[in-house]
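User: Structure with adenosine monophosphate, tokens only please.
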Amino acid sequence: MSKSFSLDSVIRKIPDFPKPGILFYDITGILVNPPAFKYCIDQMVKMYKGERIDAIAAIESRGFVFAAPFAERMGIPLILIRKKGKLPGQTWSCSYALEYGTAELEVHKADVQGGQRILVMDDLIATGGTLNAARNVLEQGGARVAGFFGVVGLPFLDYAKVLGKDIPVQTLVEYFGE
Ligand code: AMP
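Assistant:
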């Protein structure tokens, strides 16, 4: 197990990206720092090792990067949740509201098994809208969400309200505004 690590020191904060007024938390600084990346995966394994997690579902594209080594370490399936039009097979899908406009997420029907308890993850949780749409597509397939995970959490954007109290939400580092 790696030692405690200050993720904050490797997460770059970029003002006004992708548009004015947004402070972008860039996790690529974690990926180019092997001890930081190892720390993240170790922490995730530690958090979920004792729990009944049948699969991990990750959201395109930064979620994939953290979910893949976690799935391999845990010996569980990795389910890819992608933006509309990227998956070739039959899909469950869900549209959801963004700050401006809407987006749509999809998952292969064949990848989701009824009764599975699935951990859903992304690199960062802001409003929670993306993870909530991911929950929707997995539930269409008869699975249940066992937990939500984000490497970074922005609780001041009220994701707790969108994700509800019934499903635990875990993060490795939280920011409370600029
Ligand atoms: P949300 O649906 O509002 O929880 O937004 C989460 C998704 O948008 C994740 O896929 C993040 O990668 C991305 N995102 C939203 N806000 C930020 C931010 N301030 N910095 C980096 N990524 C963000």
